[in-house]
Structure formats: C-alpha cells, structure tokens
Amino acid sequence: MNVFERFSGKVLPADWSWINEPAEWRFDDSKSLQISAPSQADFFRDPSGAAIKSSAPFLHTTLQGDFTIWTRVRVDMKQPYDSGCLMMMADDTHWAKLCFEYFESTPSILSVVTRDTSDDCISGAMDVSNPYLRVARAGNCFAFHYSSDGQHWKLARYFGMNVPNQLKVGVVAQSPVGEGCAVTFDALTITNHVCEDIRNVE
To answer: By its UniProt entry, which Pfam families does this protein fall under (predicted)?
Structure first.
C-alpha cells in the first residue's frame, strides 16, 4: 500500500512528522511528495571528526519490529551529493540511509551506515532518472536494495546494527555542498512482510 495516498497538500497524518521541516514541500495531485532540500542540508558524522551534520529534511513515521519499505525517487541533480534517500534512525548516532545521489557527475546509488561515526559506500551508477530504493529489517539485520524498474533488484548493503525495536523510518532530501535541490518521491510503500533471507527480494 502506498502510504502517501493518505496525504494531501501540506497536511500530515498524526503518525508522521518532520525532523528539519523544510520551507518548501507538498504532496501534489498524484500523491507524490515534493521537497526542496535547503542549502548544505545533510546527515553525516565524518569519522575524521571534521564535520557532524544533521540538518536534512527527514519525513518519518515510527515502525515496530521487522519491516520492508520502498520508494521511487527523482532528484534535480545540480551539485555534488544532491540526493534523495530512504532512512532509518534509532537516535542521532545510530542510523542508516540509502541514497540516489549525484556522485562524480553521475547519478549513483550510495549508502551510509552510522554507528557513532558514518561510513560511505558507493554501489555504482544508475541508468535511469527515477530508480527504486528498498530497505528491509529482520531483527537487527538490514538490507538495502535498488532497482531500475521495480522488478529486478540489486543488493547494495547487508549489515547489522544493535538498535531498539522501534525506529524512525522515512525519506530524506539533501544537498550537502550545494545551494539546494528538488527531490520527488513518487510513492512510499511500507509492509511488515520480510523475505526469509532479506538479502533476497521475492
């Protein structure tokens, strides 16, 4: 089920809220979410200690236990690292995101896993302008997948993180070094069904 069917204009259901609500966002007539990421907006905790950023708009709900969430995203890429992401968060120092991002002048799939400090993993270039992103949880194991068509999925990341049963989960728009960018999420589907092996998509 596309949970965005419950949304309209700039009105959120009671179980959804913003961290870093942006000045410009709305749900259009097709129930797509449009976000204008502010300048320098990002979530990243540099392992060198050079920068800690937690300023990107994050629209989220709270999920209990296992889940699968997927979306389709488009990004008006202008500056390096402009991106739209799926994100799950336990707290400020334990979170992870899967992103469609402008990396080295190429639309690409990247992911970040943060356990006190963040890593940065590049999965590769995308050949479409509106890929699908997917996050699955089974206990303390997580799998990140991406797809060009929503049918054939590639595994970007499989990792463990000791986190509570309850997590914030949703979408992020960011422009870490740019002057801002427009991000559109065409749908957002959430289910408590997970594959027996979350590294696979059935």
So the answer is: DUF1349
Whole domain around residue 48: which residue ranges? 3-191
The phi, psi pair for 6, rounded to 5°, reads -85, -10
pTM of the predicted model as reported, rounded to 2 decimal places: 0.97
Determine, yes or no, domain membership for 80: yes
197 found inside a domain? no
Q: What angle do CA 76, 81, 85 make, to 5 degrees?
A: 75
Closest CA to 7 of 155, 15, 114, 150: 15
Quick one: tokens of 77?
Answer: 């890429």
Question: Tokens at residue 68, please?
Answer: 């699968």
Which tens digits make up the pLDDT trace of 89-128? 999 999 999 999 999 999 999 999 999 999 999 999 999 9
Q: How many residues does the chain have?
A: 202
